[in-house]
Write a structure and sequence with these properties.
This protein is mostly helical. Helix content is about 90%, strand content about 0%. The protein starts with a helix and ends with a helix.
Length: about 80
Amino acid sequence: MELQDRYDELDNLISSLNSLINELTDKNYIEQLELIKYEAQNEFEDVSEQLQKQREQEERQEEKEYWEAVVWWKYTS
């Protein structure tokens, strides 16, 4: 699964869990859902960091390719 897909899935899960928690009155189910939400939030943070690193790496690669093209164009013109 692609990082962005996992990020979106976890974001949706956390949002859905928040809605469920707000609708419920049974404390046992609320506690169980809060535990699941806590785990999802931890993974969400990890995936967010990985996604940010991936984006930064892609940006560096694009910038490198841009400057290589500029240098190539300058010396071939």
